[in-house]
Amino acid sequence: MFFSHAIIEKLKKLPTPYYYYDTDIFELTLQRAIKASEKVGGKIHYALKANCQDKLLQILSTYHIGSDCVSSGEIKKALQNNILPENIVFAGVGKTDEEITYAISQKIFCLNIESIQEMEVVNEIAGKLNTVADVALRINPNVDAYTHKFITTGLTENKFGINASDLTIVLEKLPQMAHLKLIGLHFHIGSQIMDMSSFKNLCLKVNEIQRWMEERGIVLKHLNMGGGLGVDYVHPDKNLFPDFESYFAVFEKFLERRPYQLLHFELGRSLVAQCGVLVTKVLFHKTSGSKHFLIVDSGMNHLLRPALYEAYHKIENISKYLETPDELYDVCGPICETTDYFGKNVLLPHTERGDFIAILSAGAYGEVMASNYNLRGFPNIYFSNEI
Ligand SMILES: *Cc1c(COP(=O)(O)O)cnc(C)c1O
After folding, report:
1. Which domains does the chain have, with CATH numbers?
2. Element (H, E) at 332
3. Mutation probe of ligand 1 site: the residue of 266, 270, 274 with most atoms within 8 A of C-beta
């Protein structure tokens, strides 16, 4: 069982459905990530899109972590929560003119440019603002992340970044871009990456690209290696903390870093996934042939990951935590969609109407994707240090 008896007693008193965030787990995760990153001298920019709860961001800001934003809304959110502009990076394939204007005028650290056309537009907007924008090129390194195809971003067939083969064109155009200052390169190959060899392959590709650019007289002060470190969704209790040590060690070992270079990382999921759970209550138990369905009061409207990426989450019946799991259930939401389920053939103790069900490892890409679909409203939010 993931929770202690004392926490379960508290959780069973709160009105469902709700997200519950353990701020101690969050802080311990941050501390471990920072400690491991310091060995490589890397700066962490938390990817806000994984979870943008103000209370979590306020904790984060006390650790002087930066942020990785993918919209002007996220930049605003980061600034409101005391994250300094000089620690904010801005990525995204589709930045609007308004967003580019906002980012430049807030004097954020860097805009990550994802296409040749975007480079021209940012140059033009910076010119209108009478300034020079610091930019990095987001390069698509064509490295396989060996993760679910819906969360792979670094292959030629994906929409993200500038294709490495277009770099000649970029370098030809760059001297005409009087309002851009190229400060570095940016990469992000995907999410929920468990195989460290993907990061090694990324390093080898980056070594090649930066050598090629240096031969053409380009000095790269910053290398931003993106995020993507995965978490253990199957055994969150055994592996509560991601293996930050091994992750950062790969970059230490394989990335050819120049003495003047600064490294940046954009961890999202690995910092917040395990501190959050979605708690829901069983409305009905029904059978159909040999199948047992548990219909609960939350669904894809609050946690979209299973429906969107066939994602696995560990599920526990916290009302019956002392009993032996001996029955198989499909745990389904109330939404009128066949993909509205949290888990299939989930082994649980005999479960009844009114039981509390916890969907574990739901802190990342959970609440941020909640919708009001079917007009069922949004989930409640609780924090361990407030209940
Ligand atoms: C989503 C995203 C991240 C964070 O990815 P995680 O897998 O959550 O670590 C980092 N950088 C960019 C550009 C992203 O789009």
Report:
1. 23-271 (3.20.20.10), 274-383 (2.40.37.10)
2. strand 327-332
3. 266
